[in-house]
């Protein structure tokens, strides 16, 4: 049964480890955040869609328009509506009121949350039980084909499938997920450098091309299938360096799972530190601000480890710390950052939070 009014919600994410592995068919270990995008949908008649959000001009488009022609962030909803309709989900006119508390540009996946919230809402209006994996894949297509960034499935899949109280191990080839528990004495803290990335999407696509070239040159489908011996056979030095990051990062994800199961938080922290070093030196997607934030975090006695998170170049770092020292950690890092940079950064201690949902508000 179709519905006239639904509210959908999808969280942002933070990735604990497994960076730039998703588009290499590899492994990632993210969690859903307590920050989310919520969309209040009302069915209208006809083919017109209107999006409202406080602080932004309304965006109106026809469901028959090419989503690429829809202005600004309206593209994300228009793209979701267009691809879902093509996949057989009945999509009709709507008014969508969007609000979010996910910091924009902080590498916490605000755009994936918008896509996934749109997917859940459009399934909800159509009266169909949302398919989280299908919605995540459509979200990725919107990034790739409408927005024009060749990103992987990490952000959309965790926003759609996250579970409360645990990290999620995602196999980005099979798209299988497994809940991974974090020991209670540990806390995840996000540290926003308040820097934002500009014009670096070409860098992202370049990394991906490098990986694909590297995989082809050693005859594997994706770098997920490569060993360090294979990496040594890659003749192009830069492609070899990029591949070295990916192959070692996949191994670090597995080692992190084992270390968490063994309650060895010191080792988890070392793996996070090593991940940062590899992203900074081999993959070259860190920045002075991200390096400095991770370093400040590590200098706190309560910190097990810290690294940049997400695509890189700007945004946030993530730390794993002793939960009993959360307040002192947050205060100290904020003060030291402000002293060094003259800006007060946002820090959030976050618990793993549930993935997307939709609820029906019909009378
Ligand atoms: C961005 C992309 C993801 C993933 C990360 C890096 O967040 O959207 O697909 O590649 O970067 O791990």
Tell me what the structure shows:
This protein has 363 residues and is of the alpha+beta class. It folds into two domains: 5-179 and 353-360, Ribosomal Protein S5, domain 2; 182-350, GHMP kinase, C-terminal domain (Alpha-Beta Plaits, 2-Layer Sandwich), CATH 3.30.70.890. The chain is built from ten helices and 13 strands. It has helices at residues 74-86, 110-126, 132-147, 154-161, 201-217, 228-232, 237-261, 265-281, 288-299, 326-341; strands at 5-15, 27-28, 30-43, 48-52, 59-62, 94-100, 167-171, 177-180, 186-192, 303-308, 316-322, 346-350, 357-360. The strands form three sheets. It has a six-stranded mixed β-sheet with strand order 5-4-6-3-1-13. Strand 10 (303-308) and strand 11 (316-322) form a beta hairpin. Helix 5 packs across helix 7 (237-261). It binds alpha-D-galactopyranose.
Protein topology:
Elements: E1 5-15, E2 27-28, E3 30-43, E4 48-52, E5 59-62, H1 74-86, E6 94-100, H2 110-126, H3 132-147, H4 154-161, E7 167-171, E8 177-180, E9 186-192, H5 201-217, H6 228-232, H7 237-261, H8 265-281, H9 288-299, E10 303-308, E11 316-322, H10 326-341, E12 346-350, E13 357-360
Parallel strand pairs: 4-6
Antiparallel strand pairs: 1-3, 1-13, 2-7, 3-6, 4-5, 7-8, 9-11, 9-12, 10-11
Helix pairs in contact: 1-2, 1-3, 2-3, 2-4, 3-4, 5-7, 7-8
The structure holds alpha-D-galactopyranose (GLA).
